[in-house]
Each structure stands twice: as structure tokens, then as C-alpha cells.
């Protein structure tokens, strides 16, 4: 016997026209709050309060961030700003792989030290000569720079 598997289970049912029940509640609540603004407040104040209220209501009803409803984003932001922040650093014991990595790093450091030993040493006279050539704007390897 074959059973039909439901598809699109994450899509909410449309109850009132093209709106789901949550969307309708957000829009109706926003509209009701705006009506209260216009009845009890002066027109300018009511309009100034209604604009962000309508924007928030529309975002709650229709806007999704990374596929999640806007109410989840508001909840996460609220929890982040009101929650305590306690950071604790815990030292981890070195594992066998980190010991081998440390040995490899030590060998690489020795090789770099040997390479640095082969490099010519910079004497005080050479350093002052380089500083003077930089002060007079000449290329230390090619002589005075041409002014164009």
C-alpha cells in the first residue's frame, strides 16, 4: 500500500486571503495600534509614530532573514543585548598531533635561523650609509635619483 508523503511542510497555511494566521495577526495588530495613535494623539505625532510601527509590522509579517522570520532575529538580538557575557579561557593539554607539529615547527625555525646566519651582517657603518642615502633621496643600490 502506498502512502502519499506531505510536501512543503514548512509553508504555513493561508487562512485569511493570501495571509497566514501569524501574518494577519501582525498586520491587524499594527493597524489597530495605528488607529489608536490617530484617535488619541495629534496628527503629526500619530504619523511620526505610525511610520516605524507600520515598518516593524510589515517586517514581522513578511520579511525573512536567511530564511528565518524577522521575529527570530529580533529575539536573538534582544537575548544578545540583555544576556550576560562571560568569557572563560581554558587551556587545553597538548595532544600528540600538536607535539609532532611543534617538533616540525622547531625544525623549520632552526632552518630559518641557519638561513639568517648565512645572510650578510649589517654593520653600523653600512646602516648609517643607508640612512644617509635615504635622507638625500637617492637609491642606495643605483646612486642618486634623477629629479623629473
Automatic annotation (TrEMBL):
Transmembrane spans: 24-40, 46-63
InterPro entries (alphabetical): Uncharacterised_PrgI
Keyword tags: Membrane, Transmembrane, Transmembrane helix
A Pfam match: PrgI
Entry annotated with the keyword Transmembrane helix: yes
Name of this chain's protein: PrgI family protein
Taxonomic source organism: Candidatus Kaiserbacteria bacterium CG10_big_fil_rev_8_21_14_0_10_56_12
